[in-house]
Design brief:
Helix 2 packs antiparallel against helix 7. With 191 residues, the protein is mainly α. The N and C termini lie far apart (39 Å). It has one domain. It is globular, with a radius of gyration of 17 Å. Helices cover 78% and strands 0% of the residues. The chain has 7 helices and no strands.
Length: 191
């Protein structure tokens, strides 16, 4: 069990998981510490989507082309960034943000499932639960670090212009994330 928790945690926090880290950074961009409950709900919705696809692929219920999944992952980053920019200064509220995160989680979950399927022997329930617990712990770690860093950016921005609020850092983070993701998608075009 602990092996799969650690594997899930590393899956999220390792530098090799830049696409997942970038997605989480764009996801957290419009939030502040006071929004932590909603952000945790959004991250958990992402994990739920991730878990559904992992379970389906690991149990051979669904087979997805790896090249297509790897191409779609950076596109989810672009979509999340565009949504942040479209929303403007408004912080995400209600069910749309978790629903969007869950749908993106469906795509991200397929990205690691093939490798994970080869590690399972026997029942997949406990390893899959453990892996997803590790993912959730990794996401909380990354989101806390990102939120702390972005709060420092907010404070620096406020020193220069108190009326701007967190919009510049959310817009800048989203734009940079989208730009990086477009490059990643271009490198992963499956056709």
């Amino acid at each position: 069990m602990s092996t799969f928790i650690l594997l899930g945690f590393r899956h999220i926090v390792s530098p090799g998981a830049i696409d997942h880290l970038l997605f989480l950074l764009v996801l957290v961009a419009p939030y502040r510490f006071r929004d932590w409950r909603h952000l945790l709900g959004v991250a958990s919705a992402f994990t739920l989507g991730h878990s559904i696809t992992l379970a389906m692929v690991v149990t051979d219920t669904v087979r997805l082309p790896t090249a297509l999944v790897e191409f779609l992952i950076p596109l989810t980053i672009v979509c999340a960034a565009v949504e942040n920019l479209r929303r403007g200064k408004r912080v995400p509220r209600g069910w749309p943000a978790p629903l969007l995160a869950a749908s993106f989680g469906l795509i991200h979950g397929a990205g690691f499932a093939t490798f994970l399927r080869e590690m399972f022997t026997g029942s997949v329930v406990v390893p899959l639960f453990s892996f997803n617990l590790g993912i959730e712990l990794g996401q909380i770690t990354v989101l806390t670090a990102a939120l702390t860093t972005l709060t420092c950016v907010d404070r620096a921005i406020r020193l220069g212009s108190p009326r701007l609020g967190s919009w510049p850092r959310a817009a800048l983070t989203s734009a940079l994330g989208a730009g990086w993701a477009v490059v990643m998608a271009a490198q992963r075009v499956p056709w």
